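Newbie here. two chains, one complex. Structure please?
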Amino acid sequence: MKRGTIRTFLLGDAQAGRIVPPSGHTAHLTLFVSAAMAFLAVFALALSLAAGRLADRWSSELARSATLRINAPADQRAAQTEVALKILRQTPGVASARALTQEEQAALLAPWFGTDLRLDDLPVPQLIEVTEGEPGYDAAGLRLRLAAAVPGAVLDDHTRWRRPLVQAANSLRRLGWISIALIGGATAAMITLAASAALSANARVIEVLRLVGARDVYIAGAFVRRFTLRTLIGATAGVGFGMAGVLLLPESSPEGGFLTGLGFQGFGWLAPILIPPMGALVAFLATWAAARRRLKELA
Amino acid sequence: MIELDNVNYSYGGAELLRGVSVQLAPGTFHFLTGPSGAGKTTLIRLCYGALRPTAGQVRVFDTDMTRLDRDQMAMIRRRIGVVHQDCQFLDHLPVADNIALPLIVSGRDVAAEAGNLAELMKWVGLGARADALPPELSGGERQRAALARAVIMSPDVILADEPTGNVDWDMSQRLLQLLVELNRMGKTILVASHDLALIRAAKNQVQARVLRISNKTLQLAGADL
């Protein structure tokens, strides 16, 4: 397809639109289906982008941090913590190491035990937050050194539970993109069916146009323009409703976790704007292919 | 202009035309006659490429019609005016638009040719019917509209398939008159008709040759008509 051809299609002339008889309710069906598909695409896109953000955050934040837990009798805890911090500070690849304060540890436990808990009454281990530098530290070597000097120390670099979470988020993102691809495919299939039906219904019109010297490009253009415009209009409406739905979702909050993060952030809000042009492009290609096929059959 | 060279045409195994050779020279007036079902419409359709010969060659404007692709065929059709037996209008468009259809589909500026269109409609006597829809027209009006559409691109050749099929004698005389006028302007005309009275009437006005399809072959009819 040449560029000039595409331009002729899209601009066309006002008269070409009238050549094909108006099609009544099938026009509304095309509008409705493209609106519904665009609406669904907005949510699939929101899901993909949110899952993507989650996967990125989990993998970057968690990868850069580790926790050292010191299980020691109360009287040795402070001393062991001191030794552990010293070792950590000497370890290449550790950017920083900081013992959590009593208040911070209490805040971590607050969701389970309430806020009026006194940690002194419980054998709560001391936690040290380790932030990894660039390049990172050698976890196995660190474990060996800690084991020798601080018997009660356990290094948890989060990989154990980080990996499945990131995997889950990545699967979710993949599902979102697969959904978008399926929505695109379903739209193409629907437009192809509608366009084929319209071409068949207008076989006589097409025959007359061929008899008076119309080229296939001209005839196909009348149909392509019609379906492309309908899809564009329908998809724009669908995206409008979908965006309104996403806006009505609750604000992202730490309490809500992943679910309230579902939505768009920053430039993500611009992504749904791409849906109507993409839908129109799908409709354009689907109608064009259907028209080419049908016109060859119609002599 | 149009040249058929040893053309055969069969459809579904049945032979309709055999060994048809004819030349329509520029500015000539031909009638094509023969009983119903003899293949007049088939021959006309071969001449504008709606059908392809099963053997032999059809040359239009020195171009072999069988070698053209769809776009080239469309371009050739703009240079041939065809009056179809059943007129072939777009029923949802008014008569004026139907007549202007060849201009519209070839991307010509219809507004710029409005004057020509109005004059043409007056010439075929449809000046007052511009806004009517084709189904509202009488048989004679439809045939005249079809003729107007056939000539709007100012083609060099006009093929008319039974243009006087469903009209009364007076109307068929008017249509014939229009075709004769076109021939005097230098157009090559081929009219398929089984109406011998019409052919006889025409022979008084124009030097017309009569081709007759009989027994699947085409012969030049003598002066016995």
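Moderator note: The helical segments of chain B are 40-47, 70-77, 95-105, 114-123, 139-151, 169-184, 196-203. DSSP finds seven helices and ten strands in chain B. Thread marked as resolved.
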